[in-house]
Amino acid sequence: MDTLLLARLQFATTTSIHFLFVVVTLGLVTLLVGMQTAWVLTGNPKWERQTRYWGQLYVINYVLGIATGIVMEFQFGLNWSGLSRYVGNVFGAPLAIETMVAFFLESTFLGMWIFGWHRLRKGVHLALLWGVAITAYASAFWIMVANSWLQNPVGYEVRDGVAHLTDFGALLTNPSLSMALGHVVSAALLVGGMLMAAVSAGHLIRRTPDFAFFRTSLRIGLVTAALAISMVQSFGFAQFDPVGSVQPTKFGGDGPESQALIAEWTTQFGPGDYTPPVLASVGLGFMILIGFTLGCIWLLLPLLFRDWIIRLRFPLWLILLALPLPFIAVILGWIAREVGRQPWVAYGLLPTEQAVSPVSAPLMLASLIGFSLLLGTLAVTNWMLLARHAMRGATDPALGRPPAAPSEPAHPEPAPI
Questions:
Q1: Where are the transmembrane segments (predicted)?
Q2: Burial 94-120 (b: 16+ CB within 10 A, else e)
Q3: pTM value?
C-alpha cells in the first residue's frame, strides 16, 4: 500500500468518526435550547427535567467529540503538508476562526452552563445555552466555508507557487456553501430528533413508569425528525447542478463543460484520470435511498399522538430500529461530497497526490492504526456512556442536580453562657 492511499484512509476514518459526534452535538443542542426556553417562559418543571436529562447526553457527546476533533486536527500538519503549504493562506483562515469559536467561546459557554445550575438566574443560564448553540452553528459554518473552498476555490490568486486570499467575501458567497450548509444543519437536526425519539421509544417499549416524560420527548423528536428530513431532501437535491458550473466532473459528468475542463487539466497537469471514483456515486445512491425511507416518518406523526397507539409498541420498534439510518446517511453524504471531488484536494487547483506529506508507507500505516484505534475507542466509549445514561431514566439526572443541604452536626455545641 502506498502512502497516498494510507493517508486518504486515515483522513476518511478520523473525519467520519468526528462528523458523527458533530451532528449529534448540533442536533441535541437545538432541542435543548427549545426545552430550556420553554421552562424559563412557562415555569413548568417538566421542561427542566427534559433539559437536564437530554442535556446530560449532550454533554457526554460534546466532551468526547472535542477529543476526536483534537486528534483530527493533527492530520493537516502530519499527513497533508502539501495542502498546508500551498493553500494554507486561504484554507487556514476559516479553520482558525472555527478553532477560536469552538475551543474558546463554545467551550466556555458550555462550562458555565454546566456549573451554573442553581447558581445563576434562569435568564442568564438560558442565555449561556443560547450562546453554546449559536457558537456551535458558527463553528459548523466556518468548517463548511473551508470545505466549500476546497470544493470550489474562489477569491484567491497564486503567487510564487502559493495560493493567497484576495477576497474574503468570496469565501462567504461561495456557490458551493449555502445549500451544503443547510444540508448539514438539517441532517444534524434529523440525527438529534431520531436519537431523542429512539431513546424515548426504548423506554416506552420497556413500559417505563415515567410514561408522560418520554411520550413528550418522543413527540418532540419525531416532529423534529419529520421536519428535518424534508429539509435534508430539499437542500440535498438543490445541490445537483445540471449545468455543471461548480464541479462539472462530479458524479460522472460527461458534458461539454466536463470534457473541456479535463482537456485543460491534461494540458496543465499532464495525462491522468480526472473523473471521480465510482464510490462517490454509490454513496450518493444509498444516501438518497435512506432519505426517502426516513421520509416515512411523516406517516407516524398522526399515530403517535394517541396514547393507545404508543402502547401497541409496533411503531416504537420501527423508530428504534431506524436509529442507525441517519448516521449511515451522514457518512454516505460525506463520502459523496469528498470522494466526488477527487482526484483533487482543492478542485482543479491542487491534486491529491501533491498534497500528501513525504512520509514512508510503514510510518503512515502505523499512524493510521494508532489514530483509528484511538478514535474508535472514543466512539465506543461515547456510545456506551450515552446508552448507560439514557437507559437510567429521567428520575434524577446528575446534570442540574440541586446541591445537597449542609448536614446538621451530630452533637451541636452548647451555646456560650
A1: 20-41, 53-71, 91-115, 127-150, 180-205, 217-238, 278-304, 316-336, 363-385
A2: bbebbeebbeebbbebbebbbebbeee
A3: 0.90
Give bridge partners of residue 46 from the DSSP assignment. none
Q: How confident is the model at residue 411 (pLDDT cuts 50, 70, 90)?
A: low
User: What is the dihedral sign for C-alpha 182, 94, 82, 266?
Assistant: positive
Instruction: Name the residue with higher pLDDT: 417 or 391.
Output: 391
Alpha-carbon distances, residue 233 vs 32, 180, 296, 318, 357 (angstroms): 24, 12, 13, 21, 38
- Domain count of the chain? 1
Going 388 to 391 to 392 to 398, the CA torsion angle's sign is: positive
- Residue 415 inside a domain? The answer is no
Question: 96: Cβ–Cβ under 8 A, 6 or more apart, which residues?
Answer: none
* Domain membership flag for residue 400: no
| Stronger pLDDT, 95 or 50, i.e. the higher one | 50
- As a whole number of angstroms, the distance between CA 225 and CA 31 comes to 11
Residue 129 lies in a domain: yes
Position 409 pLDDT exceeds 60: no
**Could you give the CA distance from residue 93 to residue 82 in angstroms, rounded to a whole number?**
17
Average pLDDT estimate for 153-160? 88
What distance in Å separates the CA atoms of residue 328 and residue 191, rounded to the nearest whole number? 10
Length of the chain: 417
C-alpha span between 415 and 344 (Å, rounded): 82
Q: Is position 235 within any domain?
A: yes
Helices (H), 239-273: 256-269
**Domain around 22:** 3-157+167-248+268-391
